[in-house]
Structure formats: C-alpha cells, structure tokens
Amino acid sequence: MNTLNDIWDRFKRSGFLIVFGIFSFYFVINAIKGDRGIFRYMYLKGKIEVASQQRARYAARKKDLEKKVAMLSEQSLDLDYLEERARIVLNMVKEGEYVILDGDIDNK
C-alpha cells in the first residue's frame, strides 16, 4: 500500500506540474502574440512613429499655407506676391514679357 501512495503522490505532484506548465505556456504565448503582447506593442509603436512623421509634415505644410495667406491678407498685402499668384491663376503675362518654360515639352 505504501508504494501505491508514493505513486499517487508523485502523480499528484507531476500532474500539478503539468497543469502549471500548460498554464504558464498559455500565458507566455499570450504575452508575446496576444492582443496586448510584445508583437502588438512593436506594431503599434511603428504606427505611432509613422503618424508622428506625418503630423510633422502636415504641420510644416500648414505653417507654409498660413504664411501665404498672411501675405494676401488686407493688413499686410504683398503686391508682388499678389501679382505672381494672379498671373499663375489667370495664366497671363504682361505685354513685352517672355515666358521660359522649364521642363520637357513635346513639339509635335
């Protein structure tokens, strides 16, 4: 009988270790590949970096556009800039001026 009790005690201990091992494996896998795991963290960190770079580009573009709008405002009207914008929008030049086009033009 003593041998059966020893076998049963070993089985209980090893069963506990097996169950503990299975639970540990489950939690480790979820810590690595789960919704809040390491791989997800690295993925989201990359997305945050890309979004930060995009935000910086948009901030620079916004600043440039604000500067252009300020030059066309009533309080500080830059006549040279106004004339340049009007010529670009209307596609016109003054009499006696020459237009030099920069780039490849197909003369067909």
Describe the structure.
With 108 residues, the protein is mainly α. The termini are far apart. The protein has helices at residues 2-33, 38-71, 79-90.
Counted by DSSP, the helix tally is 3
Largest beta-sheet characterization: none
From the structure provided, what is the oligomeric state, counting identical versus distinct chains? Answer: single chain
Helix and strand composition category: mainly alpha
State the share of residues found in helices, binned by percent: over 70%
What is the succession of H and E elements?
HHH
Overall mean pLDDT? 83
Kindly state the number of beta strands.
Answer: 0
Gap between N and C termini, in Å?
A: 107 Å
Task: Put the structure in a nutshell.
With 108 residues, the chain is mainly alpha-helical. 72% of the residues lie in helices and 0% in strands.
SSE topology:
Elements: H1 2-33, H2 38-71, H3 79-90
Using brief descriptors, characterize the structure shown.
108 residues; mainly alpha; 72% helix; 3 helices; 0% strand; single chain
